[in-house]
Amino acid sequence: MTDGALRGPVHVVGSGLLGTSVGLACRRAGIDVLLSDRSSEHVRTASGLGAGRPYDAQDAPTVQLVVVAVPPDHLGAEVLAALSSGNAVVTDVGSIKGQPLAEVRAAGADLRRYVGSHPMAGSERSGPLAASALLFEGRPWAVSPHEDADPAAVALVTALVEVCGGVPVTLAPDQHDLAVARTSHLPHLMASLVAGRLANAPGEHLALSGQGVRDVTRVAAGDPALWEQIITANAGAVLALLDEVQERLTSLRHAVAGGERADLAALLGEGVTGTRAIPGKHGGPVRPTASVYVAVPDHPGELARLFADAGEIGVNIEDIHIDHDPGRPVGQVELLVDVDRAATLADALEERGWALHQ
Ligand SMILES: NC(=O)C1=CN([C@@H]2O[C@H](COP(=O)(O)OP(=O)(O)OC[C@H]3O[C@@H](n4cnc5c(N)ncnc54)[C@H](O)[C@@H]3O)[C@@H](O)[C@H]2O)C=CC1
Ligand SMILES: O=C(O)C(=O)Cc1ccc(O)cc1
C-alpha cells in the first residue's frame, strides 16, 4: 500500500484553520498539496497563502494521503467520500474520533486505509486566515488506529504528524475520546461558564480584569458552532465529568456557605495537584518556572529588543503574558523562565537598563 514515507500529493478536504495549517506545513517540507473546500473562497485564500493548489477531480488517482479537516458533523461523510474516490490513505483531524469511525463503519466502507488523528493545537479563531505552518510545532497529535487499520496507513499518518512538527501519541479511538473529554472538552465548558459571568458585568468590574481571568476564559472565545458539534459527539464522556464537577461544586458551595475553611482549602489543594499533573512541553515533566516582570514602553520594536536581550543573556523564555497599563504608555510583560535562571535574567536585564518590578 505505502512504505510509510510521506511524498504526496496530500489532498486537504476543508481549507479552514486546521486544513490550511496542514497544507502550509506540508508545503514547507516541499510536499505537493491539493486543496478543496465547499467554499471556493476558502480554497482561493488558502492557496493564496501558499498552502497548496486547488484540487481537481482528475488528481484523485495520484493522491497519496487525504486529510479531512471539516467540522465534526461532516467528518464521517467526507472520510467515506475520500475512501471511495481513490486508493489513498485517509485521515481526519477532527476533535472526536469515535463518531466518524462509527459512521464510516456503519456505511460498510473498507476501513483499512482510514486512520483518524487529532492535533492538540488550534486556536479560538477559525478559517484559513488564522492558519499557520507552525501551529503544530512541538504539540501532541493523537494518531488513533482502530483494530482493522493497516499498519502502513498508521505509519503514513504518523509521517504526516512528523512533517507538520507534531509529536505523535498513539491512542485507540475510545481512549482518545475519554482523554479529550477531560483535557479539552470539560475545560472548554468550564471556561464558557466563567466567561458567561462576564458577559453583562458592569464596566468598572471588568476594568479590574487581570491575567488570571484571561487565562481561564481564553478558549471560551472559540466558535460555538464547532464546540456544539464536539460536545454533542462526545456527550457520554463529557456527562461523566460534568457529574463529577457537579458533585464538587455542591461541596464547594457548602464549604463557602458554612465557612468551612478546611474543606475549602482541600478543594483548592485538589486544583493545585491537578495543575502539577499537566505534562510540560513535548510531553516531558513540568519544569518549575518563575516570573520576571518587565515594564516595556509601548513603542514599536521594544518587545523584540527585550526578547533579543533575553536571547543574548542565554535564558530560554518558556511563556509570556502582556498586560497593558491603562492610562500609561507602558506594558507589563511577565516572562516565565526556568526557576533556576530567573535571577540571572532579572539581574542582566536591569544591567541593560530595563525597569523590573515584582
Ligand atoms: N479549531 C481548533 O482549534 C481545532 C479544530 N480541530 C478539528 O478540525 C476540524 C476543522 O476545524 P477548523 O479548521 O477549526 O474549522 P474551520 O471552520 O476553520 O474550517 C473548516 C472548513 O471546512 C469547510 N467545510 C465545511 N463542511 C465541508 C464539507 N462537507 N466539505 C468540504 N469542506 C467543508 C468550511 O468551509 C471551512 O473552510 C474540526 O473537525 C475540528 O474538530 C482539531 C484541533 C483543533
Ligand atoms: O486554543 C487552544 O489552546 C486549544 O486547545 C485549541 C484546540 C481546540 C480544539 C481541539 O480539538 C484541540 C485544540
TrEMBL record:
Residues 291-358 form the ACT domain. SUPFAM superfamilies: 6-phosphogluconate dehydrogenase C-terminal domain-like, ACT-like, NAD(P)-binding Rossmann-fold domains. Residues 8-286 form the Prephenate/arogenate dehydrogenase domain. The keyword Nucleotide-binding does not apply. GO terms for molecular function: NAD+ binding; prephenate dehydrogenase (NAD+) activity; prephenate dehydrogenase (NADP+) activity. InterPro entries: 6-PGluconate_DH-like_C_sf, ACT-like_dom_sf, ACT_dom, NAD(P)-bd_dom_sf, PDH_C, PDH_N, Preph/Arog_dehydrog, Prephen_DH. It comes from the Bacteria. It holds the Pfam family PDH_N. The keyword Membrane does not apply. One of its GO terms (biological process) is tyrosine biosynthetic process. Its EC number is 1.3.1.12. It catalyses: prephenate + NAD(+) = 3-(4-hydroxyphenyl)pyruvate + CO2 + NADH. Pathway: Amino-acid biosynthesis; L-tyrosine biosynthesis; (4-hydroxyphenyl)pyruvate from prephenate (NAD(+) route): step 1/1. Keywords: Amino-acid biosynthesis, Aromatic amino acid biosynthesis, NAD, Oxidoreductase, Tyrosine biosynthesis. Belongs to the prephenate/arogenate dehydrogenase family. This is Prephenate dehydrogenase. It comes from Nocardioides guangzhouensis.
